[in-house]
């Protein structure tokens, strides 16, 4: 076999340790908001805050540990394309919410 056929890119595959770490972090980041909702000791705003923060952390754990998104793979193009996609999604969702809010204000004045 040629050397090219047996070479694997270490950045594209995770180790068992990284998968287990990702699994444990995912379980913890799922249990925290579950506990916050079931305990019911927080205000609604605090509970929503806990859910949003843990959801964002959960997304980061999934992207880094399981999807191997980092600046090293494919010269950083995966990371750049993800950041661009996330920016477009934020702009679209934020713009839609902004438009709906102002439409709601305009329609309630009569």
UniProtKB/TrEMBL annotation:
Q: How does it assemble?
A: Heterooctamer of two A chains, two B chains, two C chains and two D chains.
Q: Where found, per UniProt? A: Cell membrane
**One GO biological process term:** aerobic electron transport chain
GO-annotated molecular function: cytochrome bo3 ubiquinol oxidase activity; proton transmembrane transporter activity
In its UniProt entry, what is this protein called?
Answer: Cytochrome bo(3) ubiquinol oxidase subunit 4
Q: Which family does it belong to?
A: Belongs to the cytochrome c oxidase bacterial subunit 4 family.
Q: Which UniProt keywords apply?
A: Cell membrane, Electron transport, Membrane, Oxidoreductase, Transmembrane, Transmembrane helix, Transport
The cross-references to NCBIfam families, in alphabetical order and at most eight, read:
CyoD
Main location, first listed in the record: membrane
Organism for this UniProt entry: Terasakiispira papahanaumokuakeensis
Question: What does the function comment of this entry state?
Answer: Cytochrome bo(3) ubiquinol terminal oxidase is the component of the aerobic respiratory chain of E.coli that predominates when cells are grown at high aeration. Has proton pump activity across the membrane in addition to electron transfer, pumping 2 protons/electron.
Q: Which GO terms describe its cellular component?
A: cytochrome o ubiquinol oxidase complex; plasma membrane
**How is this protein situated with respect to the membrane?**
Multi-pass membrane protein
């Amino acid at each position: 076999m040629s050397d090219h056929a047996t070479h694997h890119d270490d950045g594209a595959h995770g180790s068992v340790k990284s998968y287990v770490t990702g699994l444990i972090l995912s379980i913890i980041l799922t249990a925290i908001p579950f506990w916050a909702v079931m305990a019911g000791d927080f205000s609604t705003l605090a509970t929503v805050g806990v859910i949003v923060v843990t959801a964002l952390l959960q997304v980061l754990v999934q992207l880094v540990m399981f999807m191997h998104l980092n600046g090293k793979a494919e010269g950083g193009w995966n990371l750049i394309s993800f950041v661009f996609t996330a920016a477009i999604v934020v702009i679209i969702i934020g713009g839609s919410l902004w438009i709906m809010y102002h439409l709601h204000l305009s329609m309630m004045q009569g």
